[in-house]
Inverse folding.
């Protein structure tokens, strides 16, 4: 990110009214509330306001932020009663971030709808018009809506077990199991439920869109005190780990360019005939096959031999399905 | 007003009176002459403090020579220019400075209208405050999102009215068990281009950049009217009118080579443009206003439900006897789209097949037979291939 030349000023204009409204907040709470680090507050912002005052610049004309026994105070800053109104970029960012939460079906939806309404109201009609257009031109990663959670929401609210029918990408099969949902989390544009899985005897993530059925059971459960959804923030919590098996794959034609873009350069070896041979770690085989087949005949697994055989077997099943009689009813 | 009473000297006094930990270097009168300009953020903050604390409009003559940052030895013209720049910069961060002409009481000058400056109170319920905390967490983590910074800034302003302390907000968030996450590791170099493009979209400024079209394997200069910017399936896309081709195109932001720049002029985007309709769909799916071809794909029972629940606009889903389903959609005409449909079907492995149109179905069969042919007999012998030739020309 490029540096924002007004960052310190923005921080000061937001922080001063905050401290005035809540004098004596601990530094830690002020940091959590404002999303600024303690260092930024005590060093950058406090230092900036030290030089700020009004004529005639007598001692009591200078704004001063200080920390006393871990608590933060401000004085001589009465003129900074409130934060600055939201500018267009800020309002837009906020409304866009709230949008998917408002549209979805989860414990917060109603609160988020209320919040959006209040923010819009505070903006005034001109800003609302501009926002209306801007909302249709920008759409970030947080924009995915939570779809059809049904009983999942009830289970989370009332801490009741769920029996789910789930498409396991790992096994490439529908599976049935009982789960205790602890949380919902969005990762990389997809929604997950993080739950205790009675089958694996562990807390794992399930993609919400892969749950086919969810029946609410009568059994209640408690969420362990040490569970913290914030720990579920790494790729490996959601995506399968790279496996030990390294497949060697030969790519030809257009696939060469796609592979060069996607894979690290050191894993892709150029061949004399224009093809490349890439080494790819196979984590979940079902996932691997799906990735491989998008290249069609432009990809060939060379080794290991048993993987090559399973790829071939899957190709045969694909062709078999393809050649079956077509379903009668076409609408 | 003498400059001796402003700025550093008194600042040191102010510092000394506060029970703050760091004393900081006090500026003597001699060093003040060298550093006779205080840094811009301080000057802007002083200007805002002064105007906010003044009961009415203040003529520039009372700012000049008085407010810290306007009290140095610069010429009157330079000071006025400085003031004009500062006004514009403050306006960009939401601080309005307006000029009020002479009124009947003989006052004229500048003021900050409080009703335009101050954020109106937004009373938040506990649940709303918790939702805000969720969004704030997203802003802190989604560093690849060009709107993360304005989002943080917005939340920081609004939480002033939050009934929750930071710790309570965090704990409510956990009780409600909702986390917002995004992949932070991906595409770390996009930041500057995303910022330029976001700004261009909002201000309707055309952009220029070099773009690598992977389908055609060529890199070319493009001039685009950016209608919208959207994210889908791990990638950022710019959607806009390509001026050379006079057509609406999609550009993957990570395939922009070098830096995107705004060009001069402005443009009008279609009033009903909605970026979600463009990016939230596979590449083969019909773009607005284009003639396409109806494609039917049969899905096996075990995966059908995932498509039913995530149906895109214009797609239909029909149950088939036995639990499977038929997925129908309009695909773009042309070779690229047809190839993309086959990729989409192949990604479902043996759980999907092309049913219609007949030409595509035939192609799907050929495609599968060609895939299978790769595995008849032993693997392609690599040792029989020639060594790669030394790279011609551009060696670094």
């Amino acid at each position: 990110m490029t540096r924002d030349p007004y960052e310190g000023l923005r921080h000061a204009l937001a922080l001063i009214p905050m401290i005035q409204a809540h004098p004596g907040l601990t530094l830690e709470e002020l940091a959590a509330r404002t999303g600024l680090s303690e260092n930024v507050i005590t060093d950058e912002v406090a230092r900036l306001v030290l030089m700020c005052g009004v004529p005639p610049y007598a001692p009591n004309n200078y704004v001063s932020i200080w920390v006393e026994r871990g608590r933060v105070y401000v004085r001589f800053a009465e003129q900074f009663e409130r934060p600055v109104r939201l500018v267009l970029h800020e309002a837009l960012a906020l409304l866009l971030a709230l949008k998917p939460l408002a549209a979805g079906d989860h414990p917060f939806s109603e609160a988020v709808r209320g919040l959006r309404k209040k923010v819009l109201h505070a903006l005034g009609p001109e800003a609302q018009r501009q926002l209306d257009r801007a909302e249709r031109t920008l759409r970030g990663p947080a924009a995915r809506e939570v779809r059809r959670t049904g009983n999942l929401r009830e289970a989370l609210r009332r801490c009741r077990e769920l029996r789910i029918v789930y498409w396991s990408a790992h096994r490439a099969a529908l599976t049935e199991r009982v789960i205790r949902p602890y949380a919902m989390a969005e990762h990389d544009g997809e929604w997950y439920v993080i739950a205790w899985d009675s089958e694996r005897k562990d807390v794992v993530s399930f993609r919400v869109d892969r749950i086919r059925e969810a029946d609410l059971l009568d059994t209640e459960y408690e969420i362990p005190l040490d569970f913290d959804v914030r720990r579920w923030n790494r790729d490996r919590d959601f995506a399968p780990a790279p496996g030990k098996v390294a497949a060697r794959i030969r790519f030809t034609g257009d696939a060469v360019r796609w592979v060069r873009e996607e894979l690290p350069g050191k894993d892709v070896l150029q061949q004399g005939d224009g093809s490349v041979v890439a080494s790819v770690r196979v984590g979940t085989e079902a996932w691997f096959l799906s990735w491989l087949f998008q290249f069609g005949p432009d990809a060939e697994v060379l080794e290991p031999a048993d993987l090559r055989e399973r790829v071939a077997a899957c190709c045969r099943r694909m062709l078999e399905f393809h050649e079956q009689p077509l379903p009668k009813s076409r609408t | 007003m003498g400059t001796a009473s402003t700025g550093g000297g008194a600042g040191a006094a102010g510092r000394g009176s506060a029970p703050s930990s760091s004393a900081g270097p006090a500026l003597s009168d001699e060093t003040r002459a060298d550093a006779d300009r205080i840094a811009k953020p301080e000057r802007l903050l002083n200007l805002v403090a002064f105007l906010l604390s003044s009961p009415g409009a203040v003529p520039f003559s009372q700012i000049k020579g008085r407010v810290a940052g306007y009290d140095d030895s610069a010429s009157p013209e330079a000071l006025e220019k400085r003031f004009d720049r500062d006004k514009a910069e403050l306006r960009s961060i939401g601080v309005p400075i307006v000029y009020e002409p002479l009124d009947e009481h003989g006052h004229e000058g500048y003021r900050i209208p409080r009703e335009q400056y101050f954020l109106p109170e937004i009373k938040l319920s506990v649940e709303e405050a918790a939702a805000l905390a969720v969004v704030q967490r997203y802003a802190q983590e989604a560093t690849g999102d060009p709107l993360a910074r304005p989002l943080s800034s917005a939340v920081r302003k609004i939480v002033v009215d939050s009934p929750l302390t930071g710790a309570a907000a965090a704990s409510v968030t956990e009780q409600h068990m909702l986390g917002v996450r995004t992949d932070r590791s991906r595409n770390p170099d996009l930041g500057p281009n995303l910022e330029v493009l976001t700004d261009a979209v909002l201000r309707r400024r055309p952009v220029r950049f070099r773009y690598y079209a992977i389908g055609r394997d060529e890199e070319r200069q493009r001039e685009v009217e950016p209608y919208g910017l959207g994210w889908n399936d791990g990638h950022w896309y710019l959607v806009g009118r390509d001026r050379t081709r006079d057509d609406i195109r999609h550009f993957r932001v990570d395939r922009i080579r070098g830096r995107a720049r705004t060009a001069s002029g402005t443009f009008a985007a279609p009033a009903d443009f909605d970026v979600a309709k463009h990016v939230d769909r596979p590449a083969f799916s019909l773009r607005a206003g284009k003639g396409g071809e109806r494609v039917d794909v049969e899905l096996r029972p075990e995966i059908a439900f995932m498509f039913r629940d995530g149906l895109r606009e214009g797609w239909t889903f029909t149950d088939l006897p036995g639990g499977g389903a038929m997925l129908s959609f309009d695909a773009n005409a042309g070779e690229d789209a047809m190839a993309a449909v086959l990729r989409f079907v192949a990604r479902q492995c043996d759980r999907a097949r092309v049913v219609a149109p007949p030409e595509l179905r035939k192609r799907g069969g050929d495609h599968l037979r060609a895939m299978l042919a790769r595995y008849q007999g032993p693997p392609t012998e690599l040792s029989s291939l020639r060594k790669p030739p030394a790279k011609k020309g551009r060696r670094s």
Observations:
- Chain A touches chain B through 162 residues (CB under 8 Å).
- Residues 151-237 of chain A form a domain with the SH3 type barrels. fold (CATH 2.30.30).
- Residues 247 and 304 of chain A are 6 Å apart (CA to CA).
- Chain A is about 35% helix and 25% strand.
